[in-house]
TrEMBL record:
The keyword Cytoplasm applies. ATP binds at K592. This is Valine--tRNA ligase. A motif ('KMSKS' region) lies at residues 589-593. One of its GO terms (molecular function) is valine-tRNA ligase activity. The keyword Protein biosynthesis applies. Catalyzes the attachment of valine to tRNA(Val). As ValRS can inadvertently accommodate and process structurally similar amino acids such as threonine, to avoid such errors, it has a 'posttransfer' editing activity that hydrolyzes mischarged Thr-tRNA(Val) in a tRNA-dependent manner. It catalyses: tRNA(Val) + L-valine + ATP = L-valyl-tRNA(Val) + AMP + diphosphate. InterPro entries: aa-tRNA-synth_I_CS (IPR001412), aa-tRNA-synth_Ia (IPR002300), Anticodon_Ia_Val (IPR033705), M/V/L/I-tRNA-synth_anticd-bd (IPR013155), Rossmann-like_a/b/a_fold (IPR014729), tRNAsynth_Ia_anticodon-bd (IPR009080), Val/Leu/Ile-tRNA-synth_edit (IPR009008), Valine-tRNA_ligase_type_2 (IPR022874).
Length: 868
């Protein structure tokens, strides 16, 4: 055995810096490509690590879920796998743009020229109260430069925090979703989608966020309860008025039909007839459709272009005209639909033109009240309204030309294949698979992937202009693979020069960028070197693990699986691990919008990284965990455990050990019982971690570790301190074997404390040591595993008797009797010497009884020399 190098006072403070620097300089967690290629695919464990969004700060929820991943990575590394554990940064997207706008007080205006000497109005403020109109407009290139500057700073802070936490990431394997390689990969995958007919462009009703001025995909929606009101409005029919109830009277000029359920006897006579709209006097048909709800409102509804998703369905399936009246800015368009021809109708529309939806609603209500077509007063209600998940105002539906990728919504064969691939993945916990399948089966439209933003991966497409200068959208110009990456807004189209941009007979570049999920859905390809490094990609793909939050199953998990299916017809990973949410003490999910998030830097500094990791690892996958920063009980327990691990190691290493640890030297029934129990712990913890149940593994290890410290160490310390006998050697070898196993067992959860204690007597890193095996901890002794527990109960009885007598635990005992069943007494007798020593018992006798207990204990009357 190497000579122990144990500090006089072991402490957790400073271990993060000490070992973080050492791991970095030694390349402890670097992916060994040569060894991985030699071992083959089964010798590699690859992780599709979530790239955090670089738009602000990390919160305690990130620490929670990323620790779960790191525990598995460390376990797999110690189990002999070559771990490929990269880290990415998700730079592009709306959150980054919003942060840049707020941070620098700017907004993007693509019509402005680039200013190489631009200085932002300020730097570092949150600017949340400043209106967009007050922000300084700058060119797209200037805006993107600010995005890149700020995200790079955020990423440095993120990496520093991850290093402090002890993530065993290979920091040489990092990528940015807006980096050159990422843009190239994203554009190449998209072009292949076009070539295979999986990506297409269409003019269609689109969910639109009027604040961000961008289209929104189905996966980015959320319902929020909003106050509204039902307005009972009369339409004019030949047989008399027809009453509808609507929450959106401002869309009356966009009305194209009335609809009722085909089985609704009240309205069956009206099907096939027409009515005229109030105020605007437009003739619209009365139609039947199964989505109409007889029990909602008056049972008959107006179809407008477009009030909600159901309107879009009716419009498409009933082949109705489009009379959209809402512009991209959320205001009523200046020109009325062509169907409004009467002077009165056009005058009414003129009162709405240019107004916000809210103001237009008020105006229409007043006009209806004046015309007598508003029946009664509006009835207040609360109902769910569609919002962009990052937006502040209800979505509108406008008609736009957008790019889409097929996702199975309209292709049953593709949908079923996505379900099949989902079932090829092992889900942890398994019930999360149902959420994935529910999402796939509930898709209503293909994936809208174009965004009207600036900081993102450009859609690599140009359009030829005809003789009149109009784009020919159905003849897109695509770049060759070797030209990628490209930016059509600044690069000329293939076969053209820049002077032909915007000219008749020339070209125009696509200004839209891809939805950020179009890049994030390629994280296995980005990290693994798809179409860039075939050797690496073959070594790591399909990945072994996709860890992520349960809230982005519908976005990140689904979209990644979709892209892998379209490209390779395989599932991109073998396992999916879904973490739960962090909730505050009131059980509310922590989120920036609610203002209840906790940033982790202070928690890590105050309690130490191992303590925080312990708290995270104590929660099972898929289970929410409460966190109270004022009373972080679990973190305090974790700190106590880490300190105890150091102190136990110091204590055990204080005994001189033989040159090699030979289990044949372990002869004491108590020592063998302890090691047999430890072997069971090793087997159970290993099985739990192989099944991605880190919480069960930790619970198993921790429970026995405290038994080991509280009972076993106390029982054998006098024997271990004794003269060099076979009994003494048995204790010391058992202690050293147990310590080695414990340090390796706890290494994935408490990496800093485990590494520190390991370094006192071992060479190399504990994180490269072999994961313990049951047969190296104990032999097939057929020992009585219950001995440790039974003797521990006897020790507790002795301690309890002294406590009841208000005596020190060091008080000598003249005599004591331990009574119990024969088999338990036999167990206690096998460790009688240890009990006498720890209890300072002069005369220890045994008796028969139904239950084990300590009786007739007689304390020494005079204090011992030690007590004096």
């Amino acid at each position: 055995m190497s000579t122990p190098n144990v500090p006089e006072k072991p402490a957790l403070e400073g271990l993060e810096t000490k070992w973080g620097d050492r791991w970095q300089s030694d390349g402890t967690f670097r992916f060994d490509r040569e060894a991985a290629l030699a071992a083959g695919r089964d010798g590699v464990y690859s992780i599709d690590t979530p790239p955090p969004t670089a738009s602000g700060s990390l919160h305690i929820g990130h620490v929670f879920s990323y620790t779960h991943t790191d525990v598995i990575a460390r376990f797999q590394r110690m189990s002999g796998r070559n771990v490929f554990y990269p880290m990415g940064w998700d730079d592009n997207g709306l959150p980054t743009e919003r942060r840049v706008q707020n941070y620098y007080g700017v907004r993007c205006d693509p019509s402005l020229p680039y200013d190489p000497d631009f200085t932002p109005p300020f730097e570092g403020g949150d600017n949340k109260s400043t209106k967009a109109a007050d922000q300084k407009p700058i060119s797209r290139r200037n805006f993107i430069e600010l995005c890149e500057r700020l995200t790079e700073e955020d990423e440095k802070q993120f990496e520093a925090l991850w290093r402090t936490l002890g993530l065993s990431v290979d920091w040489s394997q990092t990528y940015r979703t807006i980096g050159r390689d990422s843009i190239r990969t994203s554009q190449l995958a998209f072009l292949r989608n076009i070539e295979r007919g999986e990506a297409y462009q269409a003019l269609a009703p689109t969910l639109w966020d009027i604040t961000f001025r961008t289209a929104v995909a189905q996966a980015e929606l959320e319902d929020r309860e909003q106050p509204s009101a039902y307005h009972r409005v009369a339409f004019h029919g030949e047989g008399g008025p027809v009453y509808i109830e609507t929450t959106r009277p401002e869309l009356l000029p966009a009305c194209v039909a009335l609809v009722a359920h085909p089985d609704d006897e009240r309205y069956q006579p009206l099907f096939g007839t027409t009515v005229r709209t109030p105020l605007f006097d437009v003739e619209v048909p009365v139609v039947a459709h199964h989505l109409a709800q007889p029990d909602k409102g008056s049972g008959i509804a107006m179809i407008c272009t477009f009030g909600d998703i159901t309107d879009v369905t009716w419009w498409r399936e009933l082949d109705l005209p489009n009379r959209a009246i809402i512009g991209f800015d959320g205001r009523i368009l200046p020109e009325p639909p062509e169907a409004i021809t009467s002077d009165a109708g056009r005058e009414a529309y003129a009162e709405l033109a240019g107004k916000t939806v809210f103001s237009a609603k008020q105006t229409v209500v007043e006009l209806l009240r004046a015309s007598g077509d508003l029946i009664g007063e509006p009835k207040p209600i609360q109902h769910p309204v569609k919002f962009f998940e990052k937006g502040d105002r209800p979505l509108e539906i406008v008609s736009t030309r957008q790019w889409y990728v097929k996702n199975g919504a309209r292709d049953e064969e593709l949908r079923q294949r996505l379900i099949e691939l989902g079932r090829e993945i092992d889900w942890h916990p398994d019930f999360m698979r149902v959420r994935y399948e529910n999402w796939v089966n509930g898709l209503t439209g293909d994936w809208l992937i174009s965004r009207q933003r600036y900081f993102g991966v450009p859609i690599p497409v140009w359009y030829p202009l005809d003789g009149d200068g109009n784009p020919v959208f159905d003849q897109p110009i695509l770049p060759a693979q070797e030209q990628l990456p490209v930016d059509p807004s600044s690069d000329p189209a293939p076969g053209y020069d820049e002077a032909q941009r915007g000219q008749a007979g020339g070209f125009v570049g696509e200004h839209d960028v891809m939805d950020t999920w179009m890049t994030s859905s390629l994280t296995p390809q980005l990290a693994g070197g798809w179409m860039r490094d075939d050797e690496l990609f073959d070594a790591v793909f399909p990945f072994d693990l996709r860890p992520q939050g349960q809230d982005i199953i519908r976005t990140w998990l689904f979209s990644t699986l979709l892209r892998a299916k379209l490209e390779s017809d395989v599932a991109p990973w073998r396992n999916a691990a879904l973490s739960g949410f962090i909730v505050d003490p009131d059980r509310k999910k922590m989120s920036k919008s609610k203002g209840n998030v906790v940033t982790p830097a202070d928690i890590l500094e105050r309690h130490g990284s191992d303590a925080v990791r312990y708290w995270a690892a104590s929660s099972r996958l898929g289970t929410d965990a409460a966190f109270d920063p004022q009373n972080p009980t679990q973190i305090k327990i974790g700190r106590r455990l880490a300190i105890k691990l150091l102190n136990a190691a110091k204590f055990i290493l204080g005994f001189e050990a033989p040159a090699s640890l030979d289990l044949a030297q372990v002869t004491s029934p108590l020592d063998r019982s302890m090691l047999q129990n430890l072997a069971d712990v090793v087997a159970d913890a290993t099985a739990a971690l192989e099944n991605y149940d880190h919480a069960r593994a930790l619970e198993t290890m921790e429970t026995f570790f405290w038994t080991f410290c509280d009972d076993y160490l106390e029982l054998v310390k006098e024997r271990a301190y004794g003269d060099a006998t076979a009994e003494q050697a048995s204790a010391v070898v058992a202690l050293r074997v147990a310590l080695s196993a414990f340090l390796r067992l706890f290494a994935p959860v408490l990496p800093f404390a485990a590494e520190e204690a390991w370094s006192w007597s071992e060479t190399g890193s504990v994180h490269h040591a072999a994961w313990p095996a049951a047969d190296e901890v104990a032999q097939d002794w057929n020992a009585d595993r219950a001995v440790l527990a039974i003797v521990g109960r006897a020790l507790t009885g002795i301690r309890g008797a002294k406590t009841a007598a208000k005596a020190s635990q060091r008080t000598p005992v003249d005599s004591a009797v331990i009574a119990g069943p024969a088999d338990e007494i036999a167990a206690v007798e096998s460790a009688a010497g240890d009990l006498r020593s720890v209890g300072r018992i002069a005369d220890l006798r045994f008796a028969s009884a139904d239950e084990l207990s300590v009786t007739d204990i007689l304390l020494a009357t005079a204090p011992s020399e030690e007590e004096r």
